[in-house]
Structures are given as C-alpha cells and as structure tokens.
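note to self: the first set is below, dont mix up w the second
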Amino acid sequence: MDLQTYLEPTLIAIDDQSQMLMIQDVRVYSETDKFPELDDVDMAIIGVPEFRNAWNNAKCEQAPDIIREYFYALHQGEFKHKIVDLGNLKIGQTPKDTYAALADIVGRLLDANILPIILGGSQDLTIATYNAFAHRKQIINLFALDNRFDLGDPEHEITSRSYLSKIIVSQPNYLFTYSNAGFQTYLVDKHAIQLMKNLNFDAYRLGVLRQDIHNIEPVVRNADVMSVDISAIRKNDAPGNPNAFVTGLFGEEASQIMRYAGMSEKMRAIGFYEYNPSFDIDGQTAQLIGIMLWCFVEGFYQRKHEYPYKDKEKLTKFIVSVDEHDQEIVFYKSKTTDRWWMEIPGHEDKAKFQAHYMLPCSYADYEQAMRNELPDRWVAALARFV
C-alpha cells in the first residue's frame, strides 16, 4: 500500500515568506503541496489525531497541527535539516486499526533509515511504534518521559494508562528494557514500583532527576524509542493536559533531555503525546513542545556517530578489577565527546543482543567500580540477560 493512502494533508497555514524559520526547506504535505518524496530525508513528522483510548484526555486529537504551528515558527539553528511532514494519519475505524496503520508507516520509515517523529494524540500510540520494531523482530529499549508508569491491567482494554503492560506481556516479546524518567512516587502504586525493580527496568524519580539532569543522559543514549507524555512537565510550564500535576520537570529540563535524545545514535523513533489544546493557556504548552522538538532536531544534527562502536580507535579502554566480587569490568571513554560505556559480559545469543552489550554509562559508574563496588547500572543490565 502507498503511504499516501494512510495520510491526509495538514491544515496549517504555510507562510512561504518565512525566511530562516524551521518551515523553510521542510517538505510539507498540505492542501497546496503534494505528498513529499522521501529521498535524502533524515526525519519525518506524522500527526496522529487518535484519542479514543486516552485516559481522561478527550480532545487531545487536536494537538498535531497546533504543535506544528509553534515548531515551524521557530528560527533555524546551526544545522541544515532534512525533514518531511507527511501530514496527519487518517484515523481507523477502531484504535487498533490506527495502531496497525501507524506501525506500517513507522516500519517503512525505519526501513528507509528515516526517523519518525509522531505528534499525538494519546500515548497508547506508543504500542504502534513498538509493533513496527516487533514486526521486524528487532529488540528495543523503550524510554518514557512520564510522571507514571502506565502499567494498568493487561487483562483490561488498552488505554494511555495501560499501554506498557500490553507491550510487556506481548508474545513473542521484543522489549529488552523499559526506562522511565520523571515518575512521582505519590502518583504511582508501590506495587508498580516493585514490579519495575523485579523486571530490572530503570525508573528515575523526579527528585533524583532534578538533582542533576545530566545523570539521565546515559539512559536516554541507550534507548531506541522515546515516548513523551507531556504530563511529565509541571502544570505551570505545560498546562495543556488535564492530568498535569503541580510538580514535574521544568520546561528547560525537558528540553535538555530532548537534546540528549537527539544526540543518541541509537534513537530511532520519538513520539509526543497527551497535549490537549482545550486546557492550554495562550498556546504555552504547544510552544514548549515545539521547543522540545527543536532541541531534539538540534541534537540529531550534533551526533558524533560513535554508535555502533565499530571504531574502537576512537575510544579509550579501561579495565577495572572489582576484587570483592571477582569481576573485571571493561569501560570505554570517547576521545571525542568524553561519553562513557561499559561492557556487559557476552550472551550466548550474540546476534540477538549485540546492540545491548555495550551499555552507555557515566563517569560516576567508573568511579563506583574504582571503589571496588559493582555499578548499579551494570548489575541491572547483567540481570536482563538471565
């Protein structure tokens, strides 16, 4: 099926006179411009106005075109972007039909080495992105910026508050690990927190995140897919969500995380979800999402192409003996960016896990090993192979 069959033009007004703004050089499928070619393209924007499984967030389907208006009105950075805008997905007869169509679109873009940027809609659309990888039998790491885990009950119908459980129990399963940044303990059932630990998933409380935002960079660098729930940002900065809380990330912190995501060579798809214009104030939230997207694009064009670590000459190798545990841990430090990785002992199925044995880490992990302690990140990663 031709991709255009799934899609319809965006309704935003395109100002052809907008010099040096992001809209310049973006091929947009609009009422006045034909469906764009996908040659020489790095990223593709897809609006998905699906809301039927949104939890307490009706009308979030109005988000994609409004986000576009604020993103395209920003000035270009010190990069030459190659972006197409494929317009908006035609919603299926059921949400599952929408998931199937979106999974097909995302999958074809991945096959063409084009990074999909999804503007939702509700966060259950993350399932479609996961399915695109699963259909290709590709194991992935999923990273969510969210104030909750969205586990729910896998026996119940899919909602934006239960999509993760559907992914976890799917068979065959291609989720290697899930990481959450920004969860707030008073919003999460304690049993869910324990489940995260039992599954060896990574979860970073808002308070921990706020102490030093840079600590989340290795986790973001390890992700293949990112799912952003705008409710992770505090209500004062992003009021356009009925589930927003008075506490949360500041807009600047969320934007920094987006830059980390863009810079990661592993990151292959990202989605922004749960924005509801009917709750917004003067377009404040849409403007912030536009800035977050801009920071992601800027990060993308600052990639240093260190992954998949084929050129070990660009890395300095350190071997640390943790005598108390009779372990040797191999670390690598980039000579270009000063970023760190550590090796996880090999697994029998090398082909299946080859994308996971070099784990992004921080200098703090190296310091922990030098203190004769096994880094927490290393222990959790090793447990995933069991």
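second set (the one i keep forgetting abt)
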Amino acid sequence: MRIIAIIPARYQSSRFPGKPLADLCGRPMIWWVYNQVKKVVEIEEVYVATDDSRIAETCDSFDIKNIMTSKLHGTSTERAYEVAQKVPSDLYVVINGDEPLIDPDVIRAIIPDKRPDTDFYVGNLMTEIKSPVEAVDFTNIKVVTDSESNALFMSRSPIPYPKSSIDYKYYKHVGVLIYDINALAFFASTPKGYNEKIEDINELRFIEHGKKLKMTEVNANSLSVDTPKDLEFVRCVVKKKLQDGVNI
C-alpha cells in the first residue's frame, strides 16, 4: 500500500502571514513539521504543497520536496487534491503545517493496516479534551461519533450538551487526515453545505452529504502555532528539549 504525505503551506494568513517560514530555533517552522512527518516509516514520500515561491525556495534550500499549487484554493483539502492528481498513491495523509512538534506516532495512528476495501475513504484523528477552557475555545473543533467511530457532527461549540449526565468525555479534532483520491475529488467538486458555511469546518462537507468520516482516537498534546504568541511558546518548548538533549 502506497502512502503519500502532504503538508499544505500557504504564505497568506490573516493572523500570522508567512507562518511556515517563521524562525524556530534556527529553522523555518515548515522544516520542523516536514522532519516529524518523515519519521513515519509507513509514509513513502512527503511533499509540501504551497502557493508561494518564498516557501518553495526555502523548501528547496533544505531539500524538502515541494509542489507549487494554485493560489485559488479555498482550503488545504483542495490544495491536497491538486497534489494527489500529480502524485499517484493509494492513500494521502494530510498534516497541518502549524504543528512543528507533532508526534510521529500520532500521525502513524491514522494509517490503516491494509488498503481499505472501499472506493471512498476519509479519516480524521481526535483526542480527548483535558480542560474546560479547551472545551469552550472555538478554535478547538469538537467531535461527536457514532458507535462505529464515524463522525456524527463537528462543532466549534461544546457538544453534546450534558443535560442528563456529566459522565462524558469531550473530544476535539486533530489536524491529521487521510483520504483516497475519490474522497479528495468529492470534496473539491462539492459546494459547501449549510452547516459547513455556518461552522467553517471543512470536514462537515463529508458529514452533510452522508459520507462516512472515520475518527481515530489518539493521545495528542497539540501545540499548534496560530499566532506569533503561539510561536514564542513553542520556541520555548523546543529550546528546552534541545537543552535537555531530547531528540526532536
């Protein structure tokens, strides 16, 4: 089974322009993400998918494989689909480019043991929310699943509401997904649905159209970089690990 990884990386960002190139202890952030993904032995090749020559040139300088994509894509999933049309594979793992310390074992968890026996496959990771602050933070996408771990709904609000019981664990989406080419093609050719427009959650495009979205639970301590302040925090974490001789 051939597995390709794609790291979407665009330059323009409303909260943090140029984020993939932000310095993190002497290396651009995209370098850290790329090298964490490269540690997953099941993945045959890793590509950065970008729409900006500055990111492409930086990738070239660090021998990071990259593919230039259209600036017209509205989502990272559409950008991944363009790459998938150029690089054949059984499955494509798509990793957010803003988690420079993502654990390779977390990425590995989304890869099935064998090629799915279906002509449409899409999956996502989720992790338990540990604090009330995370539960109410709208940047954390909450997930509710059915008895077979398929997503029923995703929301920026805390769901489900604990009216009859407080014996419940909340879960949030982790920015690692896996698709076959048909799932990517479906996403790229299907308009946003009613709920997706309201919540601004890409994965709702599958759920709203009755497509199964397989959720896999992992133990992930997410350290995403959305703002310059986040970068300072992650930079401190990296410095501490390097000083302690931790292999990262």
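remember for set 2: The mean pLDDT is 93.
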